[in-house]
Every structure is written in structure tokens, then in C-alpha cells.
Amino acid sequence: MDLSVVLVSYNTKNLLNDCLRSFFEQTVGLSYEVFVVDNASTDGSVAMIETEFPQAELIRNKENVGFARANNQAIRRSSGRYILLLNSDTLVLNDGLTKMVLYMEEHPKVGVMGCKVLYPDGTTQTSNNAFPNLFTEFLRIMQVSKLISNTRLRTILGVKLGRFLGRSINEYLRVYWDSERIREVDWVTAACLLVRRKALDEVGLLDERFFMYYEDTDLCLRIRQCGWKITYFPRFSIVHYVGYRQNKGSYNQLEDLERHRSRFHYFRKHAPLLERLCLRILIIVAMLTRLPLHCIGKEKRLVYLNILRLSLSQPL
After folding, report:
1. CATH number of this structure's domain 3-126+186-240
2. Distance between CA 240 and CA 251 in Å, rounded?
3. What residues are paired with 231 via a beta bridge?
4. pLDDT at 159 (0 to 100)
5. 20 and 91 in contact (C-beta within 8 Å)?
6. Beta strands 32-39; 3-9: pairing state
7. Which one, of 251, 245, 172, lies nearest residue 211 by Cα?
8. Where along the chain do its domains lie?
9. d(CA 275, CA 230)
10. How confident is the model at residue 58 (pLDDT cuts 50, 70, 90)?
11. pLDDT confidence of residue 165
12. Measured in whole angstroms, how far is the alpha carbon of residue 163 from the centre of its chain?
């Protein structure tokens, strides 16, 4: 078996249907198996899979066990030499997946590959980046990218500031001028992540303490620490309908909270104590600064309060 494909679904019935249909239509020249892990969807996703895609192996969870754990359920059952983690809210655009597998066959030191990821409007979406550190998290928490929306200015600042502040600022502000070039990167998103089974056997499965977010970064870091390469491969493209959920408003609150929970866990695993302490102070100050603002609304104020409580209760 060349390839085992794993999709985790939670209330994305229509997008899941489109994703699977596009995968089966575009994937040629490979022997593969497809697993769909449903995290207790309530939108009819299970019935749709059973009716329209009987060739996919369906794993039904009684509760939402999270992204990492659900992927691991299927990986343990899989048999492919390569494993593709593919988000259910994506659309496969071309047959480049075959080229990705061939590239990994020809480059045995590559442990993980990611592809070109697009927004529905065709613009390039962030699909790879430098490993997180205190500086990158400061930029994200303070939402610096929203203050510098002009692409030309971001490119210039990324290059100029990168000479003094290091690669992190350059990667953060990068506007994908090199999105057509195969290159080595730190990590790639699990929206579309192709991993060599040999590398996965060496480092272990996804860390299930990540409910969602940072599990892909953590996996890539562990794989790279064992001497494997992480590669960006733009000849395979997908559309990612990022953030789509049936109950979008309420689930976005959960996502905000889980992003911070996962951020804390990632830094506990990989960062020294002083850096973890500084991150905690940074988040607490950011939340306390935003809470008094009248423009944020009741819903967002509740999110910030929950993040503040999480920041104060999480172990260092």
C-alpha cells in the first residue's frame, strides 16, 4: 500500500463530501486506503459517508476526542508506507499528490511534506513557518500582521528586520513570494501533511495532549530532531475552507481557548522555564489590556476572560 489517507470530521458534512469526491477524482497512480474519523458530528456526516463513500473506512467516535487522538485512531489501523493527514474542509485541486509521494521516494531523508494551501479566493494561505518561540508568539498574540496589511510593506519589513531580529520576523511577515519553490521548512500544517511511516515509527504518533492546534508543529519538530527533513512541495495544491463549522460562533470560542491551551503545552514540552514564564506574563497582560475595551463585544470579552483564567491556572 502506497498511501493511507486520514480525515477527521466534525460537523463538516458538505465540505467533507466535496473533499472526498475531489480526492478520489484527482488521485491516480497510487494504491491507497481512506479513513474518515467522525468526532460525534450531528449534521448527518456519518450517514453521508456510509451512503456515498462506502470505500472509505469509517471510525465513529461517541464524543469529540480532538484532532490528534482521532488521527491516531486511524493511523494505528493504517498500512500505507506514507500517511496523509488531510482536513475535511479542504478541496484537492490537482493530481500532484502522486508527485509528492514520488518526490519522497527519490529523497529518502524527507520525513514530512506539505503542499500549497489556498483560500477559497485563490490567495495563498500560511501552510508552513518557523518553529514557535517567544518572539513569534508575541507577534501573533499582539496581532502585528493586522497592523501591516500591505503586502509590499510586509515583504520589505520582513527582509530588513530579519537582518537584525532573525529569521522569525521574516517568516512571520513573509508574503509567499517563494510559494512556487520546493524548499526545506521547519513545519507544515496538518491541513495537508504527508509523513513517511518510517519517520512516524521512529518518533511516535501525534501527541494526544493537544486537543487541536500545535500538534503538527510538535510532530514536525520531533521528526526534525531525529534528522529528517521537512519539505514544502507547491506542485500539489488544495483549497482550505479554514474556520468553517456548522455552529461557527460557539465553536470559534472553543478554538480560541484550545489554541492557547495547546500553546502552553507546546512551550512546556520544548521551551525553558524563563521563556514559559515570559509567555504567560505576555498573554495575561494582553488579555487584561483588551478586556476594558468597549468595542470587543460581550462574546469576545467572555473568550478573553476564559483565556485569562486558563493562563492563571495552567502549570508552568
Report:
1. 3.90.550.10
2. 18
3. 113, 184
4. 66
5. no
6. parallel
7. 251
8. 3-126+186-240, 132-173, 248-313
9. 25
10. very high
11. 64
12. 28
